[in-house]
Amino acid sequence: MLIKKTKSRRKDTALFILMASSLILVLFILGFILVYIAVQSAGYLNFSFLRGAEGIFPMIVSTVYVVLLSLGIALPIGVMTALYLNEYASETRLIRFVRLAIETLAGIPSILYGLFGLLMFCRFFGLGQSIAAGAATLSIMILPIIIRTTEESLKTIPDELRQGSLSLGATRFQTIVHVVLPGALPGILTAAILAIGRVVGESVPVLLTVGITRNLPSSIFESGRTLTIHLYYLTKEAIAPDDFGKAFATAGVLVIVVMIVNTAAKIFAGAFKKRWGRQ
Predict the structure, then answer these.
(1) pTM (predicted TM-score)
(2) CB of 62 closer than 8 Å to CB of 129
(3) Per the domain annotation, does 3 fall within a domain?
(4) Which of 21, 135, 251, 257 is most buried when burial is the number of CB atoms within 10 A of its CB?
(5) Do the Cβ atoms of 193 and 145 come closer than 8 Å?
(6) Contact call for residues 56 and 233 (beta carbons, < 8 A)
(7) Burial letters for 129-142: b for 16+ Cβ neighbours within 10 Å, e otherwise?
(8) Does 6 map to a domain?
């Protein structure tokens, strides 16, 4: 018995060391990337770089427009789809086909989404290369992420909570709104953050549907240039010695924008969870 306990402790210790080492490695990689970007962008990231004649403020605005509009389209549709699949739908052939279609959408290369958006939204619907066309294309791309992540979060809610709510006289809709959704909110937030990362990191669909215009867009129906596309052009052309420094400064701004949007999403979700908790 003593030998078995000793072996179990050794296994636990080995697994703990392995997991702790993995965590340290992930933090080290993240820290190294952030520090490297900060060092390489030193001297370039200033007010003139942001708001000067050749500044990237229009790219920041275009990026924020694309992120918010894409998330505004895809998040409600994705969450409602996940709710239907998990709370209402039975495991029929049709539902299995829908799940297969969702998984297939998640595996389609991004360039195919770009071609689809170019033909469908830019030409067929007459939106041209614009922020609206790009956001519509990217919203389709991030739908599988939101649906699958939200659905997995909904599965973690115990059925006893649902049954208790229904037994107290609540309707199915009231149970979903006041019991299921507040519990699944962290998973929905995770889905939103993953979707934001996918939208910000895409280049080909954005290049085909949003465009490369450097001007400040006055509406979502105008063309623009996101930070990712601007970063791509800086590294591709790289004629002047300062181009790579500007590229790293753009990357730093991109990281800051993503952190701000993610923080805003967490605050927004926390406020909603408190509001639901009071009801």
Answers:
(1) 0.83
(2) no
(3) no
(4) 135
(5) no
(6) no
(7) bbbbbbbbbbbbbb
(8) no
Specify the amino acid at residue 209. Answer: T
* Cα 66 from Cα 136, distance rounded (Å): 9
Q: What is the pLDDT of residues 68-119, one digit of tens each?
A: 999 999 999 999 999 998 888 888 888 889 888 888 888 888 889 999 999 9
pLDDT of residue 138 exceeding 90, the answer is: yes
Question: Look-up: residue for tokens 């952190």?
Answer: 259
Residue 74's pLDDT is 93
Kindly state the percentage of the chain with pLDDT values over 70: 92
- Range of the structural domain that residue 80 is part of: 41-278
CATH number for the domain harbouring residue 115: 1.10.3720.10
**DSSP-derived 3-state class of residue 54:** coil
Looking at every residue in the chain, the average pLDDT score rounds to 85
- For the chain, the domain total comes to 1
